């Protein structure tokens, strides 16, 4: 299944928007794009929602025919328990997280202990916890962690663009993590020379125009065959104005959806 996420509307729900999109707004945008999946990922206001507000989002998603997923950062026991409880309200069976959280950087030994504490509840609830590939933890170490914990509820969220910052080649990351991938964040990226040709900038570009070898990714991971969802994100840098940035964000969403659909036809 192809999905959108809060990162697909990053600037339009940010503080830089004159009228930031609400979660309900993003769900309606998702439906109007003909998309049946939405991942609420790293969306800070979610933790302040009341029980009634959370149920309201679930009801809206149900009415729109949208499946919900969740995304957060970190492995702290109480934090993961909170997101598991939100997942149960949302009817979500997928939670993306990261080894590193906003306030914690556990060692791999500590991460293993935290996961062993959290995962029995995920297993009982039928919810997958999928740790994203990031430069802070090598893909080799991430695979080792998943293999060591060996829980049926634990997997990997593949985003090969993130690991470029650790000088890992995207194809290597894809091939190394493929057996454990349970979700994919799809975004293309490219290097460009900075002003004066002093250094490079790594930033997002529309799918099919950058360095992501998408055909290799899907050929290796086989998401359709394995029932792995592909969620669109962007690394769209701020432009000269909100209007220009929002216009591009919406254009990229349309382009990227068309690109993924064309690959499935």
Question: Which SSEs are present, and which pair or pack?
Answer:
Elements: E1 2-5, H1 23-32, E2 37-41, H2 51-64, E3 67-71, H3 77-90, E4 94-97, H4 108-125, E5 128-132, H5 139-149, E6 154-158, H6 170-177, E7 181-186, E8 188-193, E9 200-205, H7 214-221, H8 223-226, E10 229-232, H9 242-264
Parallel strand pairs: 1-2, 1-10, 2-3, 3-4, 4-5, 5-6, 6-7, 7-10
Antiparallel strand pairs: 8-9
Helix pairs in contact: 1-2, 3-4, 4-5
Structure overview:
The chain has 265 residues and is an alpha/beta fold. It has a single domain (2-264), classed as TIM Barrel, CATH 3.20.20.150. It contains 9 helices and 10 strands. It has an 8-stranded parallel beta barrel, surrounded by 7 helices. A two-stranded antiparallel ribbon has the order 8-9. α3 runs parallel beside α4 (108-125). The longest helix is centred in the last third of the chain and has 23 residues, at 242-264. It is globular.
CATH class, named Alpha Beta
Q: What quaternary form is this?
A: single chain
Q: Give me the CATH fold name.
A: TIM Barrel
Uncertain regions spanning at least 5 consecutive residues: none
Count of all domains: 1
Number of helical regions: 9
- Write out the CATH superfamily name: Divalent-metal-dependent TIM barrel enzymes
Rg is 18 Å
Query: How widely separated are the two ends?
Result: 13 Å
Order of helices and strands: EHEHEHEHEHEHEEEHHEH
Secondary-structure arrangement, i.e. CATH architecture: Alpha-Beta Barrel
Task: Give the helix level as a range of percent.
Answer: 40-55%
Beta-strand content bin:
15-25%
Protein name: TIM barrel protein
Domain Xylose isomerase-like TIM barrel: 30-236
Pfam families: AP_endonuc_2
Keywords: Carbohydrate metabolism
């Amino acid at each position: 299944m192809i999905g959108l996420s809060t990162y697909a509307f990053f600037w339009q729900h940010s503080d830089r928007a004159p009228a930031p999109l609400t979660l309900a707004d993003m769900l309606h945008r998702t439906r109007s794009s003909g998309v049946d999946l939405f991942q609420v990922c790293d969306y800070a206001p979610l933790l302040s929602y009341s029980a009634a507000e959370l149920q309201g989002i679930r009801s809206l998603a149900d009415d729109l025919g949208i499946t919900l997923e969740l995304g957060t950062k970190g492995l702290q026991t109480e934090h993961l328990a909170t997101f598991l409880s939100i997942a149960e309200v949302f009817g979500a069976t997928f939670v993306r997280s990261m080894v590193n959280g906003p306030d914690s950087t556990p060692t791999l030994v500590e991460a293993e202990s935290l996961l062993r504490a959290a995962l029995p509840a995920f297993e009982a609830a039928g919810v997958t916890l999928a740790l994203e590939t990031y430069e802070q933890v090598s893909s080799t170490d991430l695979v080792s962690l998943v293999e060591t914990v060996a829980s049926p509820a634990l997997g990997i969220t593949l985003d090969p663009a993130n690991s470029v910052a650790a000088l890992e080649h995207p194809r290597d990351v894809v091939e190394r993590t493929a057996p454990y991938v349970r979700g994919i964040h799809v975004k293309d990226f490219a290097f460009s020379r900075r002003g004066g040709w002093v250094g490079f900038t790594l930033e997002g570009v529309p799918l099919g125009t950058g360095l992501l070898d998408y055909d290799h990714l899907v050929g290796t991971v086989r998401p359709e065959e394995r029932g792995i969802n592909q969620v669109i994100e962007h690394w769209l840098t701020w432009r000269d104005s909100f209007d220009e940035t929002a216009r591009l964000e919406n254009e990229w969403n349309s382009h990227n959806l068309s690109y993924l659909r064309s690959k499935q036809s």
